[in-house]
Amino acid sequence: MATLSATEELSDNRRAPREIEVPAPTAWPFILALGAALLFAGLVTSTSVSCLGALLSVAGCIGWFGEVFPHEHEEVVPVVAEDIHLTTVRRVVERLPVLPDQLRAWLPVHTYPISAGVRGGLAGSIAMAVLACVYGALKVGSVWYPINLLAAVAYRESLRLGPAELNSFHADAFAIAFVLHVVVSIFVGLLYGAMLPMFPRRPILLGGFIAPALWSGLLYTILGLLNPLLASHIDWLWFMASQVAFGIVAGLVVVRQPSFPTRENVSFAIRAGIEAPGTMPPRESGENHR
């Protein structure tokens, strides 16, 4: 039942509608939401769960569209006038004080250049590659073993390699793995350069532990789709160790680079900051205020 205040009723010259049409209640949005949840839950449980989620999602979409097309399903509800009286016991209206010289500051106050992220990513990639090669040498006696597994992400021929061929050198697989490793490492290094200023007290905690844990958890759910060969041979303990090594080395390299104050004309992606009042020291009287 819809209500209409007395003020709104008088403003309409006593011609307010006695009944209005509102969308009819439906359960299809709930079914669609449940289907979407099951669709993604199946990525970490079972394929049958994803199939059920897909069916519910399709049924929810069709049913929801049926509520709108070709004719909207509506129901008529009565409008009841409601007499509202606003009262207060206060005699004075309180107003928030506004400082005339209130200043704004960018947070974080300092950030790192793009070159810092690139250097951190390259340094981290070396640390990760060293650990990966040590793992290959200790497990199968070949440093080419992890390289061939990594190349299978983008190189279909690597998927056809047998157990013995995974331990040998392949120039094409090495080139693809090298380019893929460097590009991804530089990209992650740039993200570290943009995010570490937001954690000035414990930057290595983010780069060395939090980010590797989140990244490893994400890869654990989708690695079978990205690289079936790597998913069947991966050692998650060594993988986590290599991710932590990358994060610690990249974070240490980034935080050791000289930072510079943030400016208004720096893009948000590099600045990665927000505005907050009252965090900058007062300027000299002759300077302009923002």
How many β-strand stretches? 7
Q: Give the helix/strand class.
A: mainly alpha
Number of helices: 10
**Low-confidence stretches at least 5 residues in length (pLDDT < 50)?**
264-283, 285-290
Question: What number is the mean pLDDT?
Answer: 77
Please state the CA-atom Rg, rounded to the nearest Å. 30 Å
The proportion of residues in beta strands is 5-15%
- Classify the helix fraction into a percent range: 40-55%
Distance between the termini: 51 Å
Strand order of the largest sheet: 1-3-2
Q: What is the H/E string? A: EHEHHEEEHHHHHHEHE
The dominant shape is flat
The biggest beta sheet reads: 3 strands, mixed
Fill in the keyword field for this structure.
two-stranded antiparallel ribbon; mainly alpha; three-stranded mixed sheet
Quick take:
The protein has helices spanning 6-11, 28-41, 47-66, 114-139, 144-151, 171-195, 203-226, 228-233, 236-255, 268-271, and strands at residues 2-5, 19-23, 74-82, 104-107, 110-111, 260-261, 274-277. The protein is mainly alpha-helical and 290 residues long. The strands form 3 sheets. A 3-stranded mixed sheet has the order 1-3-2.
Q: How would you characterize this protein structure?
A:
With 290 residues, the chain is mainly α. It is built from 10 helices and 7 strands. A 3-stranded mixed beta sheet has the order 1-3-2. Helix 4 packs antiparallel against helix 9 and helix 7 crosses helix 9. It is flat and about 85 Å long. The protein starts with a strand and ends in a 13-residue tail after the last strand. The C terminus is likely disordered.
